[in-house]
Structure formats: structure tokens, C-alpha cells
Amino acid sequence: MRKIIVLGLIVFLLGSCLSLNQFVVTPLGEEPVEYSQRFVYSLPQTVIEVTLDIEKTSYLPGPYRKFTEKYLGISSYINEEKTRWKISDIRLSESLEPDPQKYYSVNLIRGTFQSDAYFSMTSNGLVIDPMGFISSRATLSNQLTDESNRIVEIAMKKNHAEKTDTLFKTVITDSSFVKIPILRKQKDAKTIEQKAEEAANLIIKIRKRRLKLVTGEYNVFPEGRALEAAIEELDRTEKEYLALFTGKVITEQFTRSFLIVPDGFSQQFEFAKFSENSGLQSIDSVEGQSLSIEINPVGGFPFGIYGEEVIPKNTLLYRVPSTCVVRISEGLNLLYDGRISLFQSGSVLPLPVSKK
Q: Looking at the structure, do residues 242 and 271 belong to the same domain, yes or no?
């Protein structure tokens, strides 16, 4: 209804502005030789932008995972490194651009052409000014939701253990040989189990100190924001040390956009591939399921397409969109089902300009 009202206003505007003028519209390249004064316009076509929100989840095992149950009593932990991808959301948006198959010349026969009337049509998307359209864009971005994608061993103690050996030194006396014990200290690197035990003991100590803070067992007791900051720091430290045993789960968010220009008829084609193990892939990849889009018009304007071979004088051509059903699938799994307005599926109609 809104489009019909807009068209009525445009007809009135064109009739009042162009009534003393005469022109003929022809497809671009078929202009009559005798009419040298002309300008070009085009009908719109719809560009579909398919935006995929993709989530990547990485599971990183901790270096002390073998000792998780022994020192912490936790039986659930990440045992091996793996990555999982999934499509979390799909969005469709539309933009307009000139249809390269629908360019027309307005050839002036007499009078002058009032451009204000013409641009009133472009403001409503019925025709396109070739010099003023803005094309859509494809984007690729990602967001890391965790501050680190690796696990770092944090040591609160020295990385070596001091070991004492007893050596015997032989001393010659006047009548015999005497062995004198000598203590020798040397430093050996700690084993991974020793490090795991120290980390587990520190986790338990952190929990005890946090409990004392909460229950107020310290003589000097922090209050207000100081108490909150102390507990937050203990929580952060415990989380970092616990990750050495249970591992980390890292989540990243990616956004990828595809531009699609439908032909206006029922069509279905693949535009990418997606794998749970490796994410988004090119269409020629042997890995993953195909991502396909299906577009089906549900019916256009009640009038047929206007014939370009019989365009009367003082008549402009414009285009109205048609509703289409759009479905996006991953293999046999339906991911998106919606409707859009598509100019390519609509009708090209005449807009007579009255003359006095």
C-alpha cells in the first residue's frame, strides 16, 4: 500500500513537471540518432549479504593433567587437544545496486527534463542513479573471548630441588688411611610430578586463605572494595593454577559475509563448505558439508513484465520487487528459513507522464 501511495505522488509530480516536455525511453545503446540530449538511469537489483557468525572452541590440556585426580581429586579434565567449530547465527541483509541488464536512456524530444521528478523516484528505490549507488561489502573479523590461547606454567617456587650427597675423603695419617665424610649439595631440576604436587598444594592454600577472608578469621581484616579485590585476585590465581591440571577452554567468535546476486528465478547453489573440525572452507574443499542457498519467488506484481520493444512516449519504466523465500542449509540440515524482497523477481512496469 505504501508503494502504491508513493507511486501516486510520483505520477502527480511527473505530470506537473514534465507535462510540457516530450521524451522517449529506450534500452541503453538503442537511442534514436535524432535525439542527442539524453541521460541514463537503471532499474535496481537486490544484492543479498549472508552473514555467518562462527564460533571456534579450543580445548587445551594442562601439563599436569595426569596428576589431577591424585593431588586434587578431580576426575574430569581435558586429556587431549582438540578444536570444534559451529555456526552460531545466520543473518541476511539486502542492498540495492544498478542492474547491468536494465539500463535505459531518456531521450528528450522537446522541452527540458526536470531532474527533481526523476530523483524523487530514486529516493524510493524504484530506479537507480548509476552515479550515486553504494555497494555492499564482505567482512571477516574475529573476537577472542579469552585473554590467552595457551597454558603457561606458573611457578611460585624455584624450578630446582636441592639435593645433599655424602662423600668420603681419604686422609693419610702416619699409620693408616682415614675416611672423612664430606657433605656436598647439588641442584637437580624438579620432576613434573614434583611441580604438580607444589601447584596442587598452592591451590589448596589459596582456598584456605579465601575461606579465612570470607569468615573473618584474620586479625587485620580488609573491608569493602579491598576485600572484593583480594577475593578476586585469589580467584584469578586459583583459576590459572587449576588450568595446569584441568586444562583451558578457549572460545573465539568469527564473522564472515558473502555477497550473492540472485538471477530472479528459482535457484539453488553452494557458496562455501563448513566442517566441525576445521571451520569454514572454500567451495572446492574436499572437507566439510556444503553450505547452500535456495531462493524461490512466491509471486510478483499482479501485472506482467512490460515489453521494452513498445515503450510509448513520455513513459518511464520502473521496477517493483517480489517476495522470495530464502533457505540456507548445511548438507541436509536447514540453518535458515526466511523471506526477502527481491527486485530481480519483480515486474517492470510503465509509468506514464501526462501532457497538456
A: no
The reply to whether 176 and 229 lie within a common domain is yes
C-alpha cell belonging to residue 72: 586434587
Q: How many angstroms separate the CA atoms of 154 and 247, rounded?
A: 14
The verdict on 30 and 122 lying in the same domain is: yes
Q: What is the pLDDT of residue 230?
A: 85
List the domain range (segments joined by +) for residue 275: 2-59+87-148+259-352
Q: Which residue matches cell numbers 519467488?
A: 297
329/215 same-domain check: no
Q: What are phi and psi of 3, to 5 degrees?
A: -65, -40
pLDDT score for 250? 93
Could you report the average pLDDT of every consecutive run of 10 residues in the chain (356 residues)? 40 48 86 80 91 95 93 92 94 90 87 61 52 40 50 51 54 60 64 90 92 78 79 91 93 94 92 93 91 87 56 84 93 93 88 66
37 plus 101 within the same structural domain: yes
Q: CB–CB of 274/87 below 8 Å?
A: yes
Asked whether residue 252 is assigned to any structural domain, the reply reads no
Burial class (CB in 10 A: 0-12, 13-18, 19+), 109: middle
